[in-house]
Amino acid sequence: MKLKILPPHLRNKKRYLAFEVLSERSLNREEVISMIWAAAGDMYGACGVSRFDLWVVKIWRCNNQGKNITKGILRCNRAEVNTLRSVFPLINRFKGKRVVFHTLGISGTIKSATRKFIKKNSIK
Asked: Which domain holds residue 50?
């Protein structure tokens, strides 16, 4: 039995949001995911978050001059990009340590989001 793929005009449109997290301690992928989901769940509830079609694509950890910086790319529904961005200011503490989320930019593809916003700031 051959499975048919949904044609492009019926698929949900996606956007890729590049972000940066400044923190007092190093963060791993699971911690970043839990911070975003917890803040989004608190603000919009389970039903609201389900509309985001949220997925963490990639996370990079880097220590620049003693600063703990984590960068990443989130995939979300095109119509909910600004709603997702409104969640970031709510995240200011994690396990008693201060954290700050910044949106670096929004793109239509993973490749351009990485090239424009992540690699531009030279992660090593």
From this structure: 12-121
Q: Does residue 122 carry a pLDDT above 80?
A: no
We report the CATH number of the domain holding residue 106 as 3.30.70.3250
Q: What is the mean pLDDT of residues 12-18?
A: 95
Name, in order, each residue with C-beta under 8 angstroms of 77's C-beta and a sequence gap of 6 or more. 12, 13, 14, 15, 51, 52, 53
Q: Is 29 exposed, middle or buried (0-12, 13-18, 19+ CB in 10 A)?
A: middle
As for how many domains the chain has, the answer is 1
Determine, yes or no, domain membership for 78.
Answer: yes
Burial class (CB in 10 A: 0-12, 13-18, 19+), 72: buried
Nearest one of 18, 117, 122 to 64, comparing CA atoms: 122
> Each residue of 51-102: pLDDT tens digit?
999 999 999 987 677 788 999 999 999 999 999 999 999 999 988 889 999 9
DSSP 22-42: EESS---HHHHHHHHHHHHHH
- For 49, the 3-state DSSP assignment is helix
